[in-house]
Each structure stands twice: as C-alpha cells, then as structure tokens.
What does this fold into?
Amino acid sequence: MRKTIPENGTGWPELEPQLDRFAAEAVDWRHGRSPLFVFLATESAYDVGKNAFFKFFSENALGGKRAFQGLKRMEDDVLEMALSLFSAPPDAAGNMSTGGSESIFLAVKAARECFRALKPGMRHDLNMVVPHTAHPAFDKAGQAMDMEVRRVPVRADLRADVKAMASRIDERTFLLAGSAPCFPHGLIDPIDELSALAIDSGVWLHVDACVGGYVAPFVRRAGYSLPAFDFALPGVRSISADLHKFGFCPKPASTVFYREREDYERQIFDFDDWPSGRFTTPMLSGTRAGGAVAAAWAVFHHLGAKGYCAIARDLMEMTRRYVAGIEAIEGLQMWAQPDLTLINFGAPDLDIFAVAEGMRTRGWLPGLTQRPRGMHMMMSLVHEEAREAYLGDLRAAVEAARAGRASGAAMKATY
Ligand SMILES: *Cc1c(COP(=O)(O)O)cnc(C)c1O
It folds into this structure.
C-alpha cells in the first residue's frame, strides 16, 4: 500500500519530536563524524546564515527584478564581492545558482554556445577534455546536453597532466577544465599550464573552484603560498565556486563567473513563445530560495574578510595537525600533501578499506577514494574537537586491520 497524505492535519508540537527522531538517524556531523556533506565555521556565522535565510523564507529570488528588489540588490552585492576575490576584470559577470553542479552545467552550456557561434558547421559530437579527477558534474552536463567527456589520467603526483590533455584536444573540443582543488585528492591542478594550453589551442578553460573558491583567496591572504587559479591567468574563461561549501553559507548557494559579459550572456535562457510573455533566467532553475541569497549576503558581512581569513588559518592549521597525526600512524601514508583542507591517505601494505570499516564500526562515516584506494576527509572546524578521538580510533583500526581482525570487503568508495 502506498502512503497517502494523512486525512487529518497535525500541529507543530506533535510534528517536531518526529522530525527530531528523523534528525537523530543521521551521523553525528555536529561533532565531526562526517567527512563530507556539511560545513560549519563559527556558531555565530551559522546563526546569522540561518536567521537571514528565514527572514527571506517565502521570497522568491526568481522575482528579484519585479517584486523583491532588495533580494536583487543583495544578490548583486554578493556577486560583486565574490568577483573581487577572483581577480576579475571590470567586464566580468556571473550569477548565483543552487550548487556547484548547476554552476558547472551553466559554464559548459555557455562554452558550447561560444563554440557553436565560432564554428557554425560543428554543432554536434562536441567534446570536453578534463582531468580524471574532475567532478562528475561535467559528465552530468555532458549527458544532459549530449556531449562527450574525455577524462584524462592524471600525473603520478595526482594533478592534471596538461600534456596528455593537449593530446586529446581535437577540432570538436569546446571546453578544457581544471579543479582548484579537485575533490578526491584536494589538489589544485596546474591551472597556469592549462591557461597557456587554452590560449594556444583557442579552447575555453573552466576552473572548477566549487570546493576551494571561497577559502583559497583567504588562505593566500593568511600568508600560505598557493598557485594561481583565477582570472589572473589570462586563459581562464569561467569559474565555479560554491558559497555553500567553504563560503559557509546555507544551502543551496553557488556562483558561476565569466571573464567577459558576452560569455555570460551565452548561458542566459530567453524565451517568449508562450501565453505569459517573455521569460528570462540566467540559471537552470526558475523559482529560487530568496533565503539563500539573503543568507549569503549576511554571512559575507558577518564574517568579513578578516573573519574568513581567521577561519582559513584555523582550517589550515587543523589540517596540518591531522596530516601529522595520520603520518605518525605506522602503515599510513598521505597520497598527497593537501593544498587546502581536503586530505587523502592510504596504506601501501594494508587494506585501507578494512581500516575504513573499522572506523565505521567506531561511529565514523568514512570517506573513501577508489584510485588510489584511500580514505578522504574534507575539513570543517567541527573536525577540530574530534581530532584526538579520530586519530585514536584510526590507530586502533589500523592495528585491527593489520592483525586481520577487520575486512574491507563490505566497503565501497561512494561519494
Ligand atoms: C561539490 C563539488 C561540486 C558540485 O557541487 P554541488 O554543490 O554538490 O552540486 C563540483 N566540483 C567540486 C570540485 C566539488 O567539490
């Protein structure tokens, strides 16, 4: 029997405890037991984001131009502040979206429109050339828009192999991509080399800074050295960066930007042939949460550049302590030294999935990578209080795996 909407309604006092029971089924992410999905900076940034979100709970950002002008102004503010982080030239433009997948979809669409405008005879069988470590959102866009994705193996150091990527470009390649950083290993691809390749080959370069975009500029400002990845490199045509990750803004919120307004306009949907008149949206979604716009505006103003910088420093130092703790456990090895705050490690002569299974039975949600086989964590400040417990359990799980008391057979790398 299929469930039906209950005949009689229920008041909040009875609903709330039921919702609390659903929430209690989750992994204990507030205490750092999930290595992905949630991001938390300070308690006050969390509260500000939540309060701002609920102030604009009913408003629809789709109506920002005609009905909710204040929302439109906040969105424009957020975009301008974000552009200033990415060395954007004066003519740059972009918009908010519901997430990294949508931002990537939009950039892919704009790049395709650009290609078709330049080569009107080549409308179909187009391809994108991306590193093997690129996010699946490129494939999602490729499937939806019927375009091939060529995933190119990375170098031994797990960064994009630009020479190998160059050899996969042909006359129907409309997009190159690199990550800053990639999700699996937390490494920034050699975007400077990709930029040079983009200029040489005339192919559009998209930089996927979904996970790193709102932390990398502050990490650099806090004094850490990071390779360039933004519009400062002349071949970079578009950038995606998620507010709802290390921007610490409530979901759903991302941004996508273009070096030139003309390129931005290629992603816009503009339609008139239906009874209700002209319908124009730059993004994939129609109706959009006004709360997400207001919250991003409020969190930017609440934290300020200094607040983001302090968080960036804390995250980097915490990541360093995690790396040191992991390297101190015999048998474990970092697969890469993280550029930012995503870590990936393995065990050359142990079954790391057995270690992961051991962590699962100790109450941690293990993040996994399949090539190379490893464990993965994306750091938030909630992971600081969990550090000693995590490292202690990790050591115990390694010993159990070495003694053959744990099996990794049940584990599969899943996002
Ligand atoms: C998270 C992520 C995405 C996709 O973003 P969603 O908001 O989950 O759609 C794309 N690229 C990278 C590198 C990411 O980490």
